Amino acid sequence: MRLPDDTEQRAERGTFASLFLRKVAGVFVDAFDEVRETIEFWLERQALDRELRELGQLDSWQVERSLRDSGADPASLSVLVEGHPHVQRLFPRMLERLGIGREQARRNARLMRELQLACGTCPNPRKCRRWLRSGKPSEAYRAFCPNASALEELRRSLAEPGT
């Protein structure tokens, strides 16, 4: 059965309007996520600034001791501070997305610190955030992640029997 022309046109317009509204809603959701993440970043940065002011009141030997106790190298403090907010948020999500569990990460603590430092200097935190949100195939991170080869190596070693 064939619909009259005006009914077909209305149906096409309805479909177009529906698709258009979904696209617009998606843009608003993405914009909202960006604003929310910017506010979270700012709040985390404010908390970090407070902590750094407190650290500034300590003697240098106390700061170095605290860093060493936490497994951090005092020389890498500036890198850790600069990348702090997105490393803290994105790095664990990346590990989870790639199927690297917390226990597996703990067994490779030194490598995890190196990966976190590289993550802290990453020029692509927005691409990472979008990829994590998108649900795209897990291989897509290789195009932008400075840790891609090390993470792949870690995934392969964890996949080997007895690991």
Architecture overview:
The relative contact order is 0.08. Helix 1 (5-56) runs antiparallel to helix 3 (77-97), helix 3 (77-97) crosses helix 5 and helix 3 (77-97) runs parallel beside helix 6. The longest helix has 52 residues, at 5-56. This protein has 2 domains: 1-57; 73-163, no CATH class. The chain is flat and about 80 Å long. By secondary structure, the protein is mostly helical. The model has no long low-confidence stretch (mean pLDDT 77). The protein has helices at 5-56, 60-69, 77-97, 102-107, 109-120, 125-134, 148-159.
Low-confidence stretches: none
The shape, in one word, is: flat
How confident overall, as mean pLDDT? 77
Q: Classify the beta-strand content into a percent band.
A: under 5%
Quantity of strands, as a count: 0
| Main sheet overview | none
Radius of gyration: 23 Å
Separation, N- and C-terminal Cα atoms: 63 Å
Number of domains: 2
The ordered string of helix (H) and strand (E) elements is HHHHHHH
Number of helices: 7
What is the SS-derived class? mainly alpha
Bin the helical content. Answer: over 70%
